[in-house]
Design brief:
heterodimer; A: alpha/beta; Rossmann fold; five-stranded parallel β-sheet; globular; B: alpha+beta; Beta-Lactamase; 2 domains; five-stranded antiparallel β-sheet; 6 helices; disordered N terminus
């Protein structure tokens, strides 16, 4: 089976390390970006199979990054999971409006994250 | 025939076995019904014949033979039904066992994943605290740990300075909420004085102005309590603290103070 590549976009080193450790148990290849702008660039350059996107980030937030990824022909089909501290309905709706595929709330639950990742990857 | 000693059959999906049994039962019911119908028909009194000519007598003998044959078949069918019912009960019991085993394995998997997440959180927290290159980075690491691993965007870090608590870092908290602590009152000051953590709902109540306080964690260093980490409201979607959170609190209590102390810009400082 081909190893899937996942792009992690978050300005928090804590979150990046946490996500990397959870995903590494399932043998995914991981690339990272520290803000939305870099996330859009890495999405184009790396063509990941899935993106985990934080919402509140410097330079460009996760909603805008998601919209830009959806707007580009080469990246519009990549599933995006929003990772957010905002679990309330309005934030979730904003996320879906920006084009995200699914969302998980912080603190990250490893089981939930893996389940959603596998679901988005069709595994 | 008994199945004792036979190896267990390979597990099949429960719904397939159920459907198969229902079909077997249905066929047996039809067979029994047709046999009964045939038996009744053959057993019905026949119109009396004025005479019993030899051909009719032979026909009667033939009917007797048919009836006996059908009765034997009916007995066999009854036996088959009884056997099928025993088999069905055995398969139902086996299905229940497999479902219970499946549930147990599933529960074990979830528990292991939760444990794994908790251990990962502890590793990440330690890595972030001790990987900090400066005091500012250590404070940022504490903040990130509270936001992303515990789940609160309201926190404050106090340190002991000349015997009193001084606020050194805050995020998402109104300054007036912290007045009691710096005045040496309330649960935050108590945590600093006693070295015991305050957790909402456990032990002594919080002080005035600390209604939203979730936890006050003493930050220890070599020679005692270095300061206190105060955590206020949890994120809205987080129902409460769990075992993993308490493990993170213990880790922060043991390591955050040390991480801050080691990065103090004091010349000649030795632990």
């Amino acid at each position: 089976m081909d190893r899937k590549k996942i792009l992690l976009v978050d300005d928090s080193s804590t979150v990046l390390l946490m996500e990397r450790m959870i995903l590494s148990k399932s043998e995914y290849d991981v690339v990272t970006a520290k803000d939305g702008q870099e996330g859009v660039e890495k999405a184009l350059a790396e063509r990941p199979d899935l993106i985990l996107m934080d919402v509140v980030m410097p330079r460009m937030d996760g909603y805008e990054a998601c919209r830009r990824i959806r707007a580009q022909e080469d990246t519009k089909g990549i599933p995006v999971i929003m990772v957010t501290t905002r679990g309330e309905l309005q934030s979730v709706e904003t996320g879906y409006a920006s084009g995200c595929t699914d969302y998980v709330t912080k603190p990250i639950n490893g089981l939930e994250l893996l389940a959603k990742v596998k679901s988005c990857l069709g595994q | 025939m008994s199945d004792a000693g036979k190896p267990a059959p390979a597990p099949e999906p429960a719904h397939d076995r159920g459907r198969e049994l229902r079909e077997v039962n249905e066929r047996l019911r039809e067979l029994v019904a047709s046999l009964r119908s045939e038996k009744d028909r053959l057993g019905e009194p026949r119109p009396a014949a004025p005479t019993a000519p030899p051909p009719a007598a032979r026909a009667g003998e033939g009917a007797d033979v048919d009836r006996k044959r059908l009765e034997a078949e009916l007995a066999l069918a009854h036996e088959a039904v009884a056997h099928a019912q025993v088999e069905r009960d055995r398969l139902r019991a086996r299905t229940s066992e497999l479902e219970a085993e499946n549930q147990r394995l599933s529960d074990d998997y979830v528990a292991l994943q939760e444990r794994s997440t908790a251990l990962t959180q502890l590793y990440v927290a330690l890595e972030r605290l001790h990987g900090a290159a400066s005091r500012a980075e250590a404070l940022a690491a504490i903040q990130e740990i509270v936001i992303n691993l515990v789940g609160s965007e309201e926190l404050a870090v106090f340190e002991r300075r000349n015997g009193v608590l001084a606020l050194v870092h805050a995020f998402g908290v109104a300054p007036r909420v912290l007045d009691a602590a710096t005045a040496g009152e309330g649960a935050i000051a108590r945590a600093a004085a006693t070295g015991s953590a305050y957790v909402a709902g456990r032990g002594a109540p919080a002080g005035p102005g600390e209604e939203d306080l979730t936890a006050a964690i003493p930050l220890r260093a070599w020679d005692g309590v270095q300061g206190v980490l105060a955590i206020f409201r949890l994120l809205g979607h987080k129902p409460g603290l769990d075992e993993g959170d308490h493990a993170v609190f213990e880790l922060l209590s043991a390591h955050a103070g040390v991480a801050l102390r080691l990065r103090e810009p004091r010349a000649g400082f030795t632990p």
